[in-house]
Write a structure and sequence with these properties.
This is Enoyl-CoA hydratase/isomerase family protein. Belongs to the enoyl-CoA hydratase/isomerase family. It holds the Pfam family ECH_1. This protein is an alpha/beta fold and 236 residues long. 47% of the residues lie in helices and 16% in strands. A hairpin with a 2-residue loop joins strand 1 and strand 2. Helix 1 packs parallel to helix 3 and helix 4 packs across helix 5.
């Protein structure tokens, strides 16, 4: 269900269950985590600096497979499973770019929110429809949605269950750009120097105090200058 392909510094991770709109089962969650985080410890040295996550077929991801959810013996454990995978995506060493080229629903929105960057195509749509039949996204999406969007917009999307298009998603900050080919954005980022890309992700994700963030920034800057002195000199 999860396919991977590495092209230079870019790893393409494909949710490949188009007959179910790429809905996720527990084994799929494990495979997704492994695909995104594989070799992450070597990303700073250059092999993979960007992961591009997208869906096969006409959808990005329908979220959790409702056939699985309906028969859960331990719903809290399933929610925790999804939270761990979303956390792993968020903290992965490479930059993770979600390319949404079709519907993202429920857990699919949550997966996108765990990524560092969300790029939509004109065909992208988003919704949290679980509220309409007694559920909500429990893979950490309630907190991330509020962090990414303003509280009022997050409340509107979560409580209404309505579908929004790519332009509205861009207006509320759910996606950063709307382009014809979302993968092209990931490919462009992957052409940048990988040490700098990985360092920037780490710094932008840093949630410590101001003093801690600034200390980390100084250290990362010094490391990059030391590692790339010749490149910097050529670029003057």
């Amino acid at each position: 269900m999860i396919r991977t392909e590495t092209v230079g510094r870019l790893r393409v991770v494909t949710l490949d269950r188009p007959d179910r709109r790429n809905a996720l089962r527990p084994a799929d969650l494990d495979a997704l985590e492994a695909a995104v985080t594989a070799d992450s410890e070597t990303a700073a040295r250059g092999p993979v600096s960007v992961v591009y996550l997208h869906g096969a077929g006409s959808a990005f991801c329908a979220g959790a497979d409702l056939d699985v959810v309906a028969d859960l013996d331990d719903p809290a454990s399933f929610a925790g499973h999804g939270q761990r995978v979303a956390d792993a995506i968020e903290s992965a060493e490479p930059v993770v770019v979600a390319g949404i080229d079709g519907p993202a629903r429920g857990g699919g929105v949550e997966l996108a929110l765990a990524c560092d960057l969300r790029i939509g195509s004109p065909d992208a749509t988003f919704a949290e429809p679980g509220v309409q039949f007694g559920l909500f996204g429990a893979w950490g999406g309630t907190g991330r949605l509020r962090e990414v969007c303003r509280t009022g917009d997050a409340m509107d999307l979560a409580l209404s269950g309505r579908v929004i298009d790519a332009d509205e998603a861009r207006r509320i900050g759910l996606v950063s750009r709307v382009v014809d080919d979302p993968r092209s954005v990931a490919e462009a980022i992957a052409t940048n120097e990988p040490d700098a890309v990985v360092a920037l992700k780490r710094l932008l994700r840093h949630d410590g105090s101001k003093a801690e963030r600034e200390a980390a920034e100084r250290e990362a800057f010094a490391d990059l200058v030391s590692a790339h002195a010749d490149d910097i000199a050529r670029g003057r």
